[in-house]
Amino acid sequence: MESRSSVSKINNLEYEVLQLLKEDSRLSASEISEKLGVSRVTISRIISSLKEKGIKFTVEFYEEGEFTAFIVAKTCFSSECYNLIEGGYMNIVRSNNLEEIHKSLSNVQKDSVFVSYGKKGLKISPKLVCDYCGGEINEKPIKLKIGNKIYYACCNTCYTLLKKKKSK
Ligand SMILES: [Zn+2]
């Protein structure tokens, strides 16, 4: 599960799931299945397969700024890449334009693994954390949608405080 630097192929459906997870990294399998019109079982299978390939779903682009994509590939295609001990390269693509990152990602998707997007830094964390207190969420998170941004709270108290803070 932790072999995030293994090189695997991503198929079209997996790529579409990733596209959705890019918008909201915490979508559930049933929410994704609804959006893509594919059965929940299939989506669950795809998510496990993506996880086995070491793909983390952390996506943080709630704010404007520089985005960083970490892509493990057989080749070094970006200006910033690191040789991995296990073989292959960790390519780092930075841009203020998400579309640009998507483009570089789709160009190499055949033989690479998209690891993570992070805003100004590497954020590889499969753990869901509360957007108010920063604590780990183990229960079902409480969603808070403001505009086109989705926030997550660990409890009702955090939800109320987060709502107050964000609606200022
Ligand atoms: Zn909290």
Automatic annotation (TrEMBL):
InterPro entries per record: ArsR-like_HTH (IPR011991), AsnC-type_HTH_dom (IPR000485), HTH_11 (IPR013196), TRASH_dom (IPR011017), TRASH_TR_C_prok (IPR013603), WH-like_DNA-bd_sf (IPR036388), WH_DNA-bd_sf (IPR036390)
Classification via Pfam families: Arc_trans_TRASH, HTH_11
Gene3D superfamilies: Winged helix-like DNA-binding domain superfamily/Winged helix DNA-binding domain (1.10.10.10)
Coiled-coil intervals: none
Sequence ranges assigned to domain TRASH in this UniProt record: 130-166
Cited SUPFAM superfamilies: Winged helix' DNA-binding domain
Record GO terms (molecular function): sequence-specific DNA binding
UniProt protein name: AsnC family transcriptional regulator
Species this chain originates from: Candidatus Acidianus copahuensis
